[in-house]
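Re: the request from the purification team.
They wanted to know what the chain is likely to look like in 3D before they choose a buffer screen. I agreed to run a prediction and write the result into the notebook, where they can find it.
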Amino acid sequence: MGLPKESVIHYEAAIQADGFIVMAHGTPDEMARAKAVLATHQPARLDSHEGVTPTEAATPETI
C-alpha cells in the first residue's frame, strides 16, 4: 500500500482490537472532503499520508 512502516503498527493493532481502517485516495480537494466527512464520526485516529504511492505488491512482509 505504500504506507509508512511506523503507521502500519498502529493499523495492525486497531484491526487486532476489532477496529477497522478506512483508506481513501484522490485529489487534494477530494481528500480534504473525505477527511471532513470522516472527522464528523469522531474516529480514534484520522491520519493523512500525503505523497504516498502504492507499492506493486503490498504484502505484510513488504509493508
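For the purification team: The chain has two helices and no strands.
Please add any questions underneath this entry.
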